[in-house]
Design a protein that fits this description.
This protein is α/β, with parallel strands linked by helices.
């Protein structure tokens, strides 16, 4: 069975989508449609913007969503199940016909702007930690006096911490001393999936509840619980909660494997999710 995984924020890069625009008429049409809906040229930012331009939350999220949905439209897309990492969950919902392209784009736009404002008010960071058990990382985070939490459970050996910049720096210093194999800073401006993002809940909830969510045409595994969800109202609640809750990515992959997934395909500008899933499935099979 095929599982399609949708890239999240951090996978953006300068020039993304330009080749699709130049070589495919349908892609060109959708890019123009996105510009019209948004009322500005997101294509200019995608095709000509700098790395720093695309690092901004409001630009990164829109760019990744548009790129991902175009790929589902112009390439062979036959999933048995889907999941999206953080922002990618909105792309996955659109691919499953839960949201229309227009509603999905508007939702991404509003989500990105709300999150961008919080990022500008409260400086935050996200760091990828390799080679330490999640319980150790959780323990060190809890001991810090500031706001810092495990925000993404990507795999047993790769987690992300998120929070106030100084708190993240302190925790990373400790993790480095006690055996973290590698620590990498994510190219994002903010503490996503941390308690800081609870400031977005009220405004985002109002926006989400104005949009019609339909029942997905294939199972979608959501970040907040790592399980397939089909009830539109439950999907809405999970999308709102997702902003300030940990992304249980490895739980989603495990659930997909248990439910028959044996092939993973990434949609969007990234390749990390596919690689992580393939490593996970190998380790999972060894333990069976």
């Amino acid at each position: 069975m095929k599982a399609y995984l949708f890239s999240g924020q951090g996978s953006q890069y300068p020039g993304m989508g330009k080749k699709l625009y130049e070589k495919n008429d349908l892609a060109k049409k959708i890019f123009h449609k996105a510009n019209d809906i948004l009322g500005f040229y997101i294509t200019s930012i995608m095709f000509e913007g700098s790395k720093e331009d695309l690092k901004k939350t409001k630009n990164a999220q829109l760019s990744i969503y548009i790129y991902s949905i175009i790929e589902t439209m112009i390439y062979k897309f036959e999933p048995d199940m889907v999941a999206g990492n953080s922002l990618g969950e909105l792309s996955a919902l659109t691919s499953a016909n839960v949201l229309s392209f227009e509603d999905g784009l508007k939702l991404v736009y509003e989500r990105a702007n709300i999150m961008q404002k919080i990022c500008e008010t409260i400086p935050g960071k996200m760091m990828v930690i390799f080679g330490l058990n999640h319980k150790i990382i959780e323990h060190i985070c809890k001991k810090d006096n500031g706001i810092v939490v495990v925000s993404n459970y990507n795999s047993p050996n790769q987690l992300v911490i998120s929070g106030e910049s100084l708190s993240v720096k302190r925790v990373c210093s400790i993790l480095s001393r006690i055996g973290a194999k590698k620590i990498i800073c994510l190219p994002v401006h903010g503490a996503f999936h941390s308690p800081i993002m609870k400031l977005a809940k009220k405004d985002f909830e109002i926006i989400v509840n104005k949009i019609d969510f339909k029942k997905p045409k294939f199972p979608i595994y959501q970040n907040v619980n790592g399980l397939p969800v089909s009830n539109p109202n439950e999907i809405k609640k999970n999308i709102i909660k997702q902003i300030f809750s940990p992304v249980k990515w490895m739980h989603s992959i495990r659930s997909m494997i248990i439910n028959g997934a044996n092939s993973f395909i990434e949609i969007g500008p990234g390749k990390i999710l596919k690689n992580m899933a393939e490593k996970y499935i190998k380790n999972f099979k060894k333990k069976m």
